[in-house]
TrEMBL record:
Residues 1-18 form the signal peptide. SMART domains: SERPIN. Belongs to the serpin family. Residues 35-394 form the Serpin domain. This is Serpin domain-containing protein. It comes from Rhynchophorus ferrugineus (Red palm weevil). SUPFAM superfamilies: Serpins. Keywords: Protease inhibitor, Serine protease inhibitor, Signal. Coiled coil: none annotated. GO terms for molecular function: serine-type endopeptidase inhibitor activity. It comes from the Eukaryota. GO terms for cellular component: extracellular space.
Amino acid sequence: MTPLRILFIFVLLHLTMASKEELQTVIQGNGLFTKQLYSVLAKKEGNVFFSPISVHAVLSMAYQGAGGSTYEALTNSLNVPDHSIAAKGYNSVLGQLNNVSGIELSMANKIYIKEGYELQSEFQEVTAKQFLSAVEPVNFNESEKAAKTINTWVEEKTKEKIKDLVKAEDLNEDTRLVLLNAIYFKGNWASKFDAAETRPQKFYINNNDSIEVQMMKKKSKYNYKEDRTLDAQVLELPYSNPDISMIIILPNKRDGIVKLEEKLANVDLTKITENMYKPEVIVSLPKFKIETEIDLNGPLQELGLGEIFNQKSADFSKMLKTPEQLVVSKVVQKAFIEVNEEGAEAAAATSLQIELRCLPIVEEFTVDHPFVFALVVNQHDFDNVLFTGRIINPTL
């Protein structure tokens, strides 16, 4: 008998809360997962952009319904020792992300189930209480209608930035469940760029070839450092909520992106801002808008999750009340980011001080060649990467 299918879809997001230890376990697990998945996705040429926490969250939801070797594979790949820790940790993650002030940030989960089927009570309870996921029955036999229903939810949760995520051909009479996670961010810079200062400028995609981009420019005080280990400059651009920032890591050499990524495989991006100082920095940053659609089946198999796709051994027996064998058929993420003078859809302070006649240090941070960036939340007990990627060509 051909195993029936689950379709996992990732977008690019008052109950019992997790202890600090459980929250930190999930955060650390996602941090390691982020580096591992980035390393796999970076093997392909061109721009890379994705939300690691969205992938990690929905896999953690699937973790609740897994058994046997499938459970073990998820334990190892998610870097979380137990499904209950993942559940309680993500309850706190959702509480943190959905209550950040000063910017728009939200994360949501949803389960679509085939009409006539029911979730096992324990799986339904944990996904509802800990992952705050509603369950909605749909008729997957009517694939066009089912896809429209799912895509409407995705569009609503992402303010219409992610459209047509699910294709009708992804759904059929064998589909039993669709698990979704959506994350949305929009924030203004703490100190906005002046649009009047934006000018055409060269961006070198390698040592020899360049393209013209719209380069924003601003002089202000920013957290900054020269990282000799990475052979790169690091800059932190804060949003209007200072707990949220975009970290830009710029290799010193125009063709240094590959070596930089190799070194970043051993770096926690949430800690990269340590040992920075705050000089005046002349920042030149290209405007860019990136949309990606990533088939994650292959990358997840490289991370040790081939088991969830294995028609003979995949074990999701704790999801449905019916004793049917379930297997993951497709994992896909769409992600979107736009960076401009206002901020990203992804408080200004001025100080005049009089001191001894020391010439002020002014650093220059000119992003005119490929770079790595991450959108990071840094709160008291919550340091996590929401989005990350690399830009080879800002115009694509």
